[in-house]
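anyone else get weird line breaks when pasting these?? whatever heres mine. first is seq + tokens for prot A
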Amino acid sequence: MDAPTAFLGTVNKQKELVEEEEEYLDNIINSLGQEGIYALEQFQADGQVADLDTALEKLGQAVDLAPDGHPDKPMYLNNCGISHHTRFRRCGEVIDIDKAIKFMHQAVELTHDGHPDKPMSLNNHGMSHMRRFERIGEITDIDKAIESQRQAVDLSPDGHPNKPGYLNSLGMSHDTRFERLGEMADINKAIGLKRQAIDLTPDGHPKRPMYLNNLGMSHDTLFERLGEIAEIDRAIDLKRQAVDLTPDGHPDKPVYLNNLGSSQWTRFERLGEMTDIDRAIESQCQAIDLTPDGHPKRPMYLTNLGISHQTRFERRGEMADIDKAINLKRQAVELTPDGHPQKPGRFSNLGISHQTRFELRGEMVDIDRAIKLKHQAVDLTPDGHPDKPMYLNNHGNSHQMRFERLGEMTDIDRAIESQHQAVDLTPDGHPKRPMYLNNLGTSHIRRFERLGEVADIENAIDLKYQALELTPNDYPDKPMYLSNLGISHMRRFERLGELADIEKAIDLERQAVYLTANSHPDKPMCLSNLGISHMRRFERLGEVTDIDRAIKSQRQAVDLTPDGHPQKPMYLNNLGTSYMRRLEHLGEMTDVDRAIESQRQAADLTPDGHPKRPMYLNNLGISHQTRFERRGEMIDIDRAIALKCQAVDLTPDGHPDKPMYLTNLGISHHTRFKHLGEMADIDKAIELKRQLSNSLLMRFEDLGEMTDIDEAIKFQRHAVDLIPDDHPNKADYLNCLGSSHHTRFKRLGEVADIDKAISVFEQSAKSTTGPPIIRFKAARAWISALRLKEQNFTSHTPGLQPQHTLINLIPELVWLGAPVHQRFQTIQDVVGCSIHEAVSVAIRAHELELAVEWMEQGRSIVWSQLRQLRSPLVDLQDAHPDLAQAFQDVQRRIEIYFIRSDLDDKSESASDSLEQQAQAHRRNIRKREDLLTKIRSKSGFESFLRPEKFCVLSKACLGCLVVLLTIADEQCDALVILPSSSITHLSFTNMSQDVVSELHALWENSRMTRLSNRGHEFPALFNAPNNIPVQKEIFLEARLCDRGEVAASFDLGPMSSLLADLWERIVHPIVLETENDLFDLTDDRLPHITWCPSGPLSFLPFHAAGIYSSELDDRISISDYAVSSYTPSLMALLSNPYPVQKLGRPSILMVTQPYTPGQKPLPGTTVEAKNIMEKAALNDMQPAILHLPQSEATVSAVMKQLETHGWVHLACHGTQRFPDPMESSFALNDGALTLASLMQKSMGNAQFAFLSACQTATGDQTIPDEAMHLTSGMLAAGFRSVVGTMWSIQDRVAPEVAETFYATLFEEGRKSEWKLKPEPAYALHFALKKLRDESTEDKDLMKWVPFVHYGV
């Protein structure tokens, strides 16, 4: 054989050997690959991890042996990736999913685009990226998943059998990205893709049920985002189809049943229909029944069934359900091997059920187990795992729950630590971050409630705001986050007392209620929270609408909650508390009955082991005690003691609420002791509350044991030391301590005690954070303590500092932001007497100018507030125009609200509108206060809108004497301010509170019983013999002559003696003391005195004081010495003074209403108008008069004409409204002309008003210093001078007075050619002179005494 031939043979031989080796290698590779694939299929069938390990070993060898060009290498790489993917899902090791992605990526790279396996490799590659995203949370993974799966879809033609699967997988990745980013485009894309997958799959296809199930899951997700019932209905329908299309023996049937149960559970959570939760349990039970014991998915089905049983328990409250839930979840934990990635989640779920059972039974073993299980869940989960934040959050929730029961600070600190970690481990875009922030905020609230650290409540609000801002508006949890944030603001309000917080709380909670459907299970909670906030604002502002709204919201919460619901007792308890608050304010006994009924139901629905049962029993006991105190039925106080005993017995010794329950039980024993006198009760009270002060003080008061008061002071001092200085309750604690020192001083007389009382009362009064009412009471107590020290230690001379403090608190106490009627109530309850006492002290200290200033600050407070809102800002405008404009704008907004008419509409929308207006008003008040602070910081404006000093007030006395009258205790004083700005002081030793009360009673009786004086008005009716009784019908007919809604006829016998008393005791001494000053004011006419009485003196007719006898020569009265006027305050005389010269003849609007619809006839008004017109016609420079009689005098017509007429004469009925003076009105032809309406008009031309109606200057006896009558209201509306009436006037007399009055004014105007201002006070004096001179009998006084002049 030649060499070439031999060489060629050798080559061929080697080639054959290589081919044999390649064939052998191929066989090995194929064998390894097939073994690996078989092992993988075996694992998928029986779940044995050993099979999976074998699959990875064989496939890994096949991959390693196969060269890159090997045609099957991509397949082996893909299967190797699938095996690592599968082991990752089973064992949770991140290295497996990393390898899966690596192998699948190589498979994709080695497969060209036209290869039929390329779409499958891309799809699998995408699925692995999706799984790694679910574990690690890197957004690049889910983006890569979608990119790969999109290519898989694009490379597959529509008819390809795998295209539906690729569409389904791509849809699942869009689902996953939506859950992370919340972009609606993703979920919509997911649903569209999965719908395509179904549409491309025929009915009989084995994968159609899977696609239906997966599409249903996307609708689940969309429902969770939008909350639209249609979405969860679609989800259930699709999953039901998946179940129905799958035979019982199919391995996926349990999966579809489990998923169907999950959707039914979700719909129950939303709608609360019991059929849904029952069906969910049924579906999940079937899933478990079809799943053998060793199946890897059985623990998941057990867990989900346990969750459903727990949910049904939360609704029905049946212990069998929560016990079943715990049993099922425990089985799930036991069936899950230790290394399984789902084990931590199952630990956490089991812990949640133990926590739920603790909430019901209160057994500590459950909450301890919950914490242990959740701690295991945290420990078993690596930091990078996406579920770690959830487990940390749940762990923190359980510590928070245990803290609420035991009060151990370590628990709440651990709760915050765990929840903080949960937040830190959760990226900003994660959908669960808002929930974790919200829960962390709640734990900060709990710690704040315990420690009172403001930093905690600030953190809570900040965290809950973050939760809210991260939550889309259409997200179902948004309402609950709104409500929770509202609760945080309410808690800060309770601590700091800032009204803005409770306003914000109500606003947020109202939004939560509005956004939550009645069918939503969270609606009752939102309503209850709103009710609590309304109750808190009621406690602050006293506005009855708030407590009514609280009760309405809490009643709705109760009605929307079924009896078995675990939250129903809490809602009932809250409702009962609100009824009790309203009882305290209004005193309606039906409220305490309703409170007891609500609180009894709350207690009955709560088992003995429940941690809240003691609170419900305690509250029910308090209500029974309150009812006993009002009705005196012994059964109530016995029940109160029994219920409070149960509360004490059910509360463990270390619980933070136990001292409170002991205190309340002691109070009930003390109450029964006072009623029955049984010493056992008072001893029991002390035994129960040994470490508390209330019972000690009670027993000291009853038995006088000094050890009791000493121990009480000790505990009160400790309480004061513990509470932060800026806490709003500190002032109240100081008051309690001061009262105890005050009490001990009265017993022992030691100066140290009274000094300590003075010191703590001063500290309380000067607090900057305490409620104004508490500080005001402290100032009064401070004054009282100083007075007591002065009485016992004559060398001690108290200063005026406490009185200064008290006076300065008035603007805060009678707050401009409070409703008008509440301000009047505060003045009535608190302010009046305190002002008079302070003025009296200043007078005794010879600080007369200061006394005048204080009197002014305590008079016409509400009118003064309105006057301030209209103050000109000329100086501020010149110096700081921007500030002036801002201040003027906010002043105007406040004024509009001040004088608005309250709506009678009680609809929900009207109520909401009024609430919004009230909140806007209070925001404006706060803005005004901020602007005032800014303005007063400017040079020259330090005293801007502060109370005027005497140097300004004294200008009210130019051309006249102003007499200020005050009475306090047994001291009655007059301060006469002279034109020279000096003050003359007179003290009336023969006048006391008792004497004034007698005179006032005499005055009231005189003007309310004048039937015998009406006979001459109706001779045809009253000329019957005296012994014939007047019929009731005739009496009622006779009353038609009075111009008011409350008419009367009286016996005037006491009137002359009343006027004589006033003359002798007060008025004549003033005349004698100021005789020279009066003479100096005389200029061819009588001098002018303006009376400004206060307190009960406000209702006495000083202008008519005198001795009236039948002989004119024997008479003497103030009218002989001076012309009299009245003023509600000195500033009322200074505001809008008359210009020095008139611009011409006056323009007069005259309104007469002889026959007002719905009112009693006033025929005299027609005569009155005729007389005035005739007098005007006689004047050659007659004024312009526009007369609107009867039907022409509509509200709109009068309002329009008021803008152009400076004078107005109203002859009609007048009505005063208490306590809302803005609704006081004049009755016109088509309705009421209210003060509110008058004040809304520009009154630049307003000069003079004659109110020829009844009782237009009478006022409210409960708030005498406020001058709450139509006459003062007209001054406040802009009129400079007003004639009014102190009580009903006679229809026959009114025309006569008006005729003479206007004749005098017109004549004065004619003489000066209307260049000098006419003087209504003198015209009225002259008009009444004729009637005074004709008063030959006592009854004749009633003709003219009612007429009075107010103003300049």
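and prot B, same format (seq, then tokens)
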Amino acid sequence: MLPIGTTRVQDAHWEEVTIPPARTVPPKETEEPVIISKLDPLARGSFPGYTSLNRVQSIVFKTAYTSNENLLICAPTGAGKTDVAMLTILRVLDQYSTKGPNASTASPAVNIRRDDFKIIYVAPMKALAAEITRKLGKRLKWLNIIVKELTGDMQLTRAEIAETQIIVTTPEKWDVVTRKPTGEGELASKVKLLIIDEVHLLNEDRGAVIETIVARTLRQVESTQSLIRIVGLSATLPNYIDVASFLHVSPYQGLFFFDSSFRPVPLEQHFIGVKGKPNSATSKKNLDQVTFDKVLDLVRQGHQVMVFVHARKETVKTAQALRQAAIDEGALEDFDTSGHPSFELFRRDIGTSRNKEMKELFAQGFGIHHAGMLRSDRNMMERMFEARAINVLCCTATLAWGVNLPAHAVVIKGTQLYDPGKGAFVDLSVLDVLQIFGRAGRPGLEDSGEGYICTTQDKLDHYLDAITAQHPIESAFVGGMIDALNAEIALGTVSSVDDGVQWIGYTYLFVRMKRNPFAYGIPYDELSNDPGLRTRREDLIKAAAKKLVEARMIGFNEMTQAFTITDLGRIAAKYYIRHSSIEIFNTKFKPIMSEADVLGMLSMSTEFDQIQVRESELEELQTLLERVIPCEVADGTDTSKGKVNILLQGYISNAYVEDFALVSDTAYAAQNGGRIARALLEIALSKKWANVTATLMAVSKAIEKRMWPFEHPLKQFRLSADVLYNLQQYADELSPAELAAMRADDLGKLIHLNEHHGKALLAAARQFPSALISYALRPLGAELLRLFVRVQRAFEWNAALHGNSEPFWLWVEDHNGVDILQSSFMQFKPGTSVIEVDFVIPVRDPPPPSVTIRFLSDTWLGAEDEVVVSFEKLKMPLPSTTRTQLLDIPFLPISALHHPTLENLYEHRFRVLNGIQTQAFWSAYNNSQCMLLSAPASSGKSIIGQLAIWQAIIRDPKRPSLVVLPLDSDAKDYYTTLKSFSGPMQLTVSLHTSSAARLSRRERNIDVVTPKSLMGWLETNPDKSYLNSLGLVVCEGLELLDPVYELAVSILLHSTQTLPVRFIGITTSLSDSADLARWLRVHDDELYDFRPNDRDQSLSTTSQAFTIPPSSALFKAMVRPAHIALRTISPNEAAVVFVPSRGQCRTIAHDLITQCAIEMDTRGFLPPGASTDELEARLSQFKDRSLIDAMMHGIGVLNHGMLTSDRLFTLELFADGILRVLVVPREMCWTLPVRATLVLVFGTQYMRIPARLTQTTGSSTRMGPKKDSHVVQQANDTTGSNAKSGSKAQSSGVDDRELKKYSVHELVRMQGLAVRHGRAGRFHLLCQAEERDTYMRFLEEGLPLESALMGNERLPPREEKASSPLHPQSNDKSPDPYHGSDALREWFAGRRAASSIRGKQDAMDMLSHTYLWRRMQSNPTYYDVDVVEGGEKAQDAALSRFVDRLFEVTAPPAPSPTPVPATANAQQASASGVASEATKAAPTA
């Protein structure tokens, strides 16, 4: 029903409906305007020029400014809703201002804690977002509040986001931002106020996005128990109560509805429907006529008129048409403004403009305004219209959104406009109409305004109903639910059908389904039987999930009703790709594709469905197809996908497009094409398709750079047109590296220009990203190859050009160039000179001829390189043949010791030996031969070593025993154990962990040493009598064999080679123990080589892989799976969670609490019987109060940074079963004294601070327990699992950090903590997909163990090429010579000084007793022994060369030379450089 007083008039050419202005409702007696001068300083200063708030603002003031209630303000356009939003912003600023005695009295700006909050203002359009940004920024500048725009056109860096307090964005952009768990997405965790402008758009296409972001925010509020205030601003709408319910607004406190009677200037609305078929000549003629008639009538009444059209060209055409109609009617004088007092001044001003149409029209009182005009011309038009020097201003809708320029009357001429997003003409939105009508009437100058909308007759009722709010707005969420559900699953907020049902409960759809079920196909009976619509919501979720499963975007477990995201789903959510597009890509994506194929597939994306082909465009499209674009277009010019393909290629080619609609379509295609190309690139990477990945990399960069890959790479620099043209004419075949090697004058001549141009070209060539790649092959087993790769930066850094980082991709692909075997994404930073990467790849027998290392810049076209890695000289080690089968035999009781004292001592620990101990018992206890036991972690291996010690003491108590353990902590534990036996067994047990042990001959003596202390003793002229009397050496933890450990044992072996010393080796299961056994003189019969899964205890090992690059986003993605895994253990069992660093312990604990909150679980992981009151009382003694919340949820945090009392108390609560989850950092795996049912590893990468910034011993960085660092470092560097060391700078800078991977030794140690005698355990690994196969293979087949004595665990430092320091002529792939580990060099130098090693033969004899010598025979390629060319003597030759290098690097320093003149120094340096270059270029064996 239309308002009372509405009239309807029929004309021969149109129909007009007039709605009179609403009668203003007089204020209530209780209403009083809010006087600005009476407000506090914060509010007073933010309303400059105001004396009071208007009526609407005054009514809302108390709730908006003095409470945290969610708000919904429904009011007419122009009622001042933006100032209501300002009040809520000021409320946040006030809440986050320091108060009390610490507050400053100088200015409110000083007291605001700007880093503690973010405010998000969601505007429906980019134009409005820009205007809001300008307004808020201006108003709040005095408070030093930074307001910035974040839209598709305006991106913000992480630093800009951090310094910004108010971010103005669009619904789609905020949806994208909050889909990300980190980066921009971390904004969401600081948001305290969310303002949604024009929330009545819920019933339009974009409404689904508004529902999505509101639902996400509401769930965040409930899950984190944080306060995020939601404020909705809306035009008048009939079902405002439903919208309030959706926004969780209290209908009694936060809901304010103001009808049109509250408009500051009453508005008379005219709805005109012109007769005639839409778009026909008759219709257009009638539209022109009625527009002129209404404008003329208004001008004759003395009013100004703004005529709104929908294209820039139409502003001029309409103004000219109105002027011509006035001439024809003889009414031109009515528009004339020459009598204006300032007319001559304005005419002089307009004479400075170059806009001819603007000058001509001004003379008759007409003006034009659109975004395509110069800013100065637009400002001039605005000034003249405001001064009434123009009567009629023809403009586009951007004026209504961007500038507050009111007029008495506004006329909307036509309601059809071209939407490039849909590729078609669409109806003018209700939002635009309301915004334009809001410009009618001049507050304070007039008491009324008039708004006219001229449309076709068939659209008349549509606009009548919409503008007068006759129909309730419905939800448009169903249309976008599939993609919204995928986004939530990717984010981890929806992981099951139940979660999805709960999620829909937060949407406007749910509100309207209950209120108006028939509109959504819900029978009344269904609603009455199921008031909560649980079944309907479940059906909606399952239907959406089914579509996502069909698109392979999620996995759905029918039994558990659980969802898991796939790579496709994650990428689609990240890049805002529709599921329908993914379905197309699934059918069209192939491993090998050309640029034409890729562009053709990209153009099929449903994101481009709106782009339609129009008859008028075919000729121009055909011209582009034939003359401009380089790639073939299979679909021609007459299809939508063909058109998109042509426009994209035209955009890349910088082609000129004439048709206005085609220009818009081109911009739309380019904006979306770049995003979709990046998504396709990630999909190709996830599929590990090498060829198409490289192609997509080129295409995505081509769209971003607007140039083709075949063009010269230096075109990406801002070089002059002459330089670029001549470069392509005369030097197109030369690469940037070749140009960089030339001189500036030579370059000037080359391009037929002068030296000045040559310098510019040389600078560009030297700044073009390039790298020097070298590699080394390190076989880790019969089928695993570790490929060391060093990427050395070879370009000059320019901060203005390269910014903070230069990202690039590095991958290894098969010899056919089809499959990516492993890949890595990394960045050069200003302080980074070298990046080292390890790849572990499978190599089958026979091995392929080669693999290829490919380097590609992520942003620069042409910045790429490839190195072919030949396998011609590769020799892989043979498979192990020494495995021991675990026999199914009866377990031996401890009575088998036949020693009452020992039996009594062991009885309280165990009564029977386990299977491995039983099988090895005879060799250990009843034999005197050397022995090696290689068995799983926590399988009781140390007991076997103890039995050998008792046997040695019982047989000959005069001969001492020596126990070597790699870690100080393990040595202390071992010493404590033996000490408990010392009294009953009448033993002396000594612990030596200092730099040099003091070993002396004593009866019934056991010495426990570390390799470091043993080495110190051996270097200080050891007691020969001790060595001569030594009876037993037990080497524990041989899997952690490092240079010090190997050297110490090798010296013992060398020194006792003629003595009857028994060596017992104990190690975690190795992939091949044969060489270790031979090194320790172990006969084959005494080698016990068990597999990692040969254990009596039940231990399951599971893993979950992630394809997200190393980042905080990866850890965020792991939280939900970790929480699910922790929920699988029984309520009375415990779990240990290993995280990469101390700093992440608290973060992960907090994230686990959040997951509990999402499930509405307030107890978290507390055991069923635990009393929270009693726990709170016990925690009163806990010093670190920041951890109390986690502990109240059953989660403990333990690290070495805590107070000792807090650590002990945490362990006590964990042992008591009060804390069921213990979060600890990676390095505590070596010292953690507890075990658990579940051990969960939360990621396998950590950031290591460079050695120069950490405590060091020699060259070993402390990474584990302080005194054990040399072993932990060795474990990291030699196991083959530290496959990516990341960015390692060799120059100073804040970026000098290394991304390291967990060693397999650490994982085995962690896995051992899940082994519990008599009970089942579980080890669950969360890691990247690239690493899972390698880790799992080692965990299942055993650890590799190679010697680090040569120092070849990393590539040696490389000197720069003297001839071209920036751009080496070629990639030198062969590794430089190795000079031995620090420990070996130090020992070797000492022995030479002491004359123990006099010549080469002495050194060769010594090294023949090392584990290195054994492994050089079995795994020659690992040690760069060329057995292909060298034959049987290759090992001897390689070791001989190694000894030569040792003699070189340990030679005593030469006497200081006589000083020489500077010139001579320079000549010597030059000669030295040439010699160095010659040496470096020589092949290395």
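btw re prot B: The chain has 57 helices and 44 strands. The longest strand covers residues 784-793.
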